[in-house]
């Protein structure tokens, strides 16, 4: 079914590569006008150049999700370029691996700043624009690490757990504004962020995944598309787990 996002305007953070780029391409293919935000400017602009060739429409804005002024500019770009903002995907994220007692305060603050504060700032500035548009859908990319315990990623785990509950807070708060807010919880997905994972850890995760393989960025993008679209008009404050069955064990 084509045109699932026809007439809608979406802003996606961390959209230069990986899951964010897949989401942007899919959204544009389904009729959305998409603003891609990222700190990776060259890759972000290259991603935008590929989208019109697929029949979509897109623009790029530099976006450091830890900087409030960058979020203000990104939302303004969506409204000034396309006239409104209907969808926000808080996709940007980083991970730093170390046991809790070996995690520096600098590394902790870096992960919390991007993964947690970045989501807060994105929603803070998207909500007023969505009110002006008459409603909208916010999709926050969390992780299975926001649902279950995993070793050696304390800051990442804390941030993704916070995203899950911040999502529920916003879902309850803004339902009367016709703004839906949901979280997506991917498992092991093939992206540039997960590529450096040690082979032995990757094999361990695959053994614990009932489907026995990594997921793809496009598979996550289709889940995000559902939550962004009007097909999920009665869905808010919930989690969509895309993990090959990992958390079903």
Largest beta-sheet characterization: 7 strands, parallel
Taken in chain order, the helices and strands follow as EHEHEHEHEHEEHEHE
Strand share of the residues? 15-25%
Helix coverage percent: 40-55%
Total of DSSP H or I helical runs spanning 4+ residues: 7
User: How widely separated are the two ends?
Assistant: 33 Å
Give unreliable regions as ranges. Answer: none
- DSSP summary, beta strand count: 9
Shape: globular
> Order of strands across the widest beta sheet?
3-2-1-4-5-6-9
**How is the quaternary structure best described?**
single chain
Radius of gyration: 17 Å
Would you tell me the overall average pLDDT? 94
Structural class: alpha/beta
3D structure, described in words:
The chain has 249 residues and is an alpha/beta fold. It has helices at 18-29, 41-50, 68-82, 105-133, 154-174, 199-207, 217-228; strands spanning 9-13, 33-38, 57-62, 87-90, 136-141, 179-186, 189-190, 215-216, 239-242. The strands form 2 sheets. The protein has a 7-stranded parallel beta sheet with strand order 3-2-1-4-5-6-9, with helices on both faces. The chain has a two-stranded parallel sheet with strand order 7-8. The chain is globular and about 50 Å long. The two termini are 33 Å apart. The mean pLDDT is 94.
Ordered list of secondary-structure elements with their pairings:
Elements: E1 9-13, H1 18-29, E2 33-38, H2 41-50, E3 57-62, H3 68-82, E4 87-90, H4 105-133, E5 136-141, H5 154-174, E6 179-186, E7 189-190, H6 199-207, E8 215-216, H7 217-228, E9 239-242
Helix pairs in contact: 1-7, 3-4, 4-5
